[in-house]
Amino acid sequence: MTAPDPYSGWDSLLPREREKLTARVILVGAESTGKTTLTQDLVQHYRSRGGVWANTLWVSEYGRDYTVAKIAELGIGWEDDAEFRSADWTSEDFAVIALEQQRLENAAASAGSPVLFCDTDALATQIWERRYLGNESTAARDALPDLPPRALYLLTDHRDVEFQQDGIRDGEQFRATMTQWFVDELLIHGERGQFVRGNREERLAECIRLIDEVLAERPPVS
Known about the structure:
Helix content: 40-55%
Keywords: Kinase, Transferase
Strand content: 5-15%
Strand order of the largest sheet: 2-3-1-4-5
CATH class: Alpha Beta
Number of domains: 1
Number of strands: 5
Radius of gyration: 18 Å
Pfam family, one: AAA_28
Largest sheet: 5 strands, parallel
GO molecular function, one term: kinase activity
CATH superfamily: P-loop containing nucleotide triphosphate hydrolases
Protein name: Nicotinamide riboside kinase
CATH architecture: 3-Layer(aba) Sandwich
Order of helices and strands: HEHEHHEHHEHEH
Domain NadR/Ttd14 AAA: 24-203
Shape: globular
CATH topology: Rossmann fold
Number of helices: 8
């Protein structure tokens, strides 16, 4: 006898109901630790399951697009020989990034499958604000003091991925500190999280196991 599909009623939900019920899986970590690759691998896996999962969505890192735009405003071209291009950050920038990242996340949650993958979030924006402007700058947190419930945070370990400079990353020397800051923040906020270690295949397999556990715990939508 075939087990009933716990998400048989998902497609009939209104967008605002999906936004509330979607399991939001957030990938965070220091620079060049494999977040985007892992996010895309997870999306591909869940889409391949078909049915309601075929519409699994992901939210990219808005802060990266914002950074590229700010660097362009400074007149620094990608054809220049600079190894690292730095933007001139203000507190307002991080508030703008946090708000837009959350808007994109909410929009995707209202339109996709029962699971949503986010390549960073507004909490990560708060940590990057601390990195660039110090502990006293709290614009991102002030703009979004409360975030929607997260099903799971996946923290990519910097020790398993070789650092690759793409022209806007700070540098390898900051990765260990940033990893620890993410650990500290997730503990402070009491979020459900897991360190992600290993090669690409090992990371993907472990994350699928963790996410399936989270999905199995959620009430059916039928």
